[in-house]
Amino acid sequence: MAGKTGAGLDPVEVRGLSKSFTVKEGPVFRKTAKTVAALTEVSFTAKKGEIFGLLGPNGAGKTTTIKTICTLVQPSSGKVYVNGHDVAREPQKARQDLGVMLTGERTLYWKLSGRENLEYFAALYHMSRTHATERIQYLLKLLGLQDRQDTLVENYSTGMRIRLSFAKAILHEPPVLLLDEPTMSLDPQSSRLIREIIQELRGRGHTILLTTHYMEEADQLSDRVAVIDKGRIIAMAAPEELKDSVKKSEVTEVEAQNINEQTVEKLRGIPTVTEVVSSIEDASSLKGVIKIHSSHGRNVIPETLGILVKDGVEVSNVKIATPTLEDVFISLTGRALRD
Amino acid sequence: MTSIAQSLDPIRAIFRKQLRHLIRYPGELVFVLFILYFVAALTIAMGTSVADGNALTNFASQTGSSLNPFVFLMIGTGVWMISWMVLEGIGTSLRDEQIKGTLEQNFVAPINRFFLLVGTALSSVLITTLIFAGTIVSSVLILAPQGALGLIAAFAIMLIGLIPLFGLGFVFAGLVVRFKEPYAFTQAMNVLFGVVTGTLYNVTVLPFWVRVISGAVPQTIVIQDMRLAIGSVSDVIGALGSIFVLLTMGVIYPFLGYAVFKQFERRARVTGDLSKY
User: Fold this and answer.
1) Residue of chain B whose alpha carbon sits nearest to that of A35
2) How far apart are CA B34 and CA A288, in angstroms?
3) Residue B6: which of A92, A109, A126 has the nearest Cβ?
């Protein structure tokens, strides 16, 4: 650990991280400044060979956390260590150990080909040309881009650009990978491929910090998940542990038509019900799903159905659902992830 | 232990990437090639329309230069164009990268910001310099062949003048990263440089207080000394003092400029401006 300044041994250590931004609002000459806390006392570690998921709604602070770790944002307070390197004091060493995939397909040069993009970033990460050439060919093949390697990125599909962006992040085989929504906008086949590679990287000892909107992805991939809301970590454990904590209050899922807020409010009034969340999938028929969290599980079904039928809600299916990470978030915050 | 060649790899990669972009968007190169001739021709046409048959005599007495007016003007516009490319190359390119979303990807890479800034401008500067060299050499050989010997000295002065210019470019890059207004800054400064450096005239025609500003801009010295060198090599020997000033600027400006850039960059990381478009 020579030359490293971190006290711990974990590849990613975030201690008491806070970040506030000053936002100016109002008309041009009468702008008022207000301070917005993006992160408050965020602390976690990601271990070697671990996939650590950051789960939370838009604006929760996931991307700010990632950007602080990769030195793009300077924290207001707190410390971040990457492989023992304090990112504030040794940013270059921290950057060398990081592979970063930021959200979106616009992180590439569209007027360069896929291969030229990777060659460029290989040089920025001080890879020798021989090693870079071999590695680039390997990754292009792995991600199904070999045949289009000399095509300009502007002619790639969104999925191809995201795969190339992923290849760029893992190009120099960094011990720590920061992946911000790595499968967003990807087709199922490409998403599966990326997930398989992420799992393979974990098997080879890489540490992966992953932010995602997709609960299934966080659940499937993560060894541990931190649930983040309004800049604070509100829960952190293995997905199974988090879901077990919700099992105490089983979730009844009702698929129905004509769902309305008054009926949902009535369901909230059932004594054993702790939370009710509805989501409308078809606005014209008011068709959707109502999730009822209850401390008495299935015992709530008769009373629920009674209220729904009386209010003219057409029930098409009722099931006791296995809790998901979404349910964990609902039980912790009273809101759905996409609210 | 990284070798010198390895440590230069990033700057080479940035240079090659920028060059590919320039070649794949060739409009800018065509613009640079033609603007040199257009500005010089426009000025000669204006001078002739005002002074008619006395234009050349008036020009020689006002500028104190025996150089062919076209060559005189080409030197001014060429140096102006190169300074334009440096300021735009460093400042505007960073903003373009910010808008495209690629700036962050460069900033998370373990490379010195200095390499990033220099490499970004190097390709456009190299191409502009080559175009400038081609146009100047051909103009001198055709219109003022007696000045051919001075071409080497003139280009040496021009190359020395690039070093402090990069320092000014770093300040621009900092302003752009922080305030995200590259076009206003670079266009205003380019026009200002065109006025104060004596692009189309001799700086002696400017009021004293403007000449004080001119003296702080390296391109003023470059233009003056290049004209001297092509006019007569022996004249430039008498201007060694100004070349020493240029060399001193070459030491001070890049350090100052880089320090200013780092300060603005640090501020942008505090405010989160690096990610804002």
Assistant:
1) B271
2) 65
3) A126
Which tens digits make up the pLDDT trace of B130-172? Answer: 888 888 888 888 888 887 888 888 888 999 998 998 898 888 8
- Whether A73 has its CB under 8 Å from any CB of chain B: the answer is yes
In a domain, B3, yes or no: no
Residue of B2, B17, B178 to mutate for A, most A C-beta atoms under 10 A: B17
User: Hey, is the C-beta of A74 within 8 angstroms of any chain B C-beta?
Assistant: yes
Structure tokens of B219?
């391109």
Delimit the domains of chain A by residue range: 12-243, 248-333
Reported ipTM exceeds the 0.85 cut: no
Mean pLDDT for A148-158 is: 94
Domain housing B40: 10-272
Tell me what percent of the residues of chain B surpass a pLDDT of 90: 18
* Residue B277 falls inside a structural domain: no
Nearest to B20 among A102, A108, A116 (CB): A116
Q: Which amino acid is at B65?
A: S
Q: What is the structure's pLDDT at B1?
A: 46
Q: In this complex, is the C-beta atom of A36 within 8 Å of any C-beta atom belonging to chain B?
A: no
A102 touches B: beta carbon within 8 Å: yes
B193 occurs within a structural domain = yes
Of A98, A110, A126, the CB nearest to B9: A126
Q: Taking CB atoms and an 8 Å limit, are A107 and B104 in contact across chains?
A: yes
Q: Is A70 on the interface with B (CB under 8 A)?
A: yes
CA B22, CA B236: separation in Å to the nearest integer? Answer: 35
DSSP annotation of B162 reads H
Q: Does the beta-carbon distance from A112 to B104 stay under 8 Å?
A: no
Interchain contact B8–A (C-beta under 8 A): no
Average pLDDT, chain B: 84
Mode of pairing for the β-strands spanning A51-55 and A224-229: parallel
**pLDDT tens-place string over residues A106-125:** 789 999 999 999 999 999 99
Closest CB to B17: pick one of A73, A92, A120: A120
Domains A12-243 and A248-333 share a fold: no
CATH top-level class of A248-333:
alpha beta
Residue B2 lies in a domain: no
A260-303, pLDDT tens digit by residue? 989 999 998 888 888 888 888 888 888 999 988 887 667 788 88
Q: Which fold has domain A12-243?
A: Rossmann fold (3.40.50)
The number of folded domains in chain B is: 1
Distance CA B242, CA A260 (A): 82
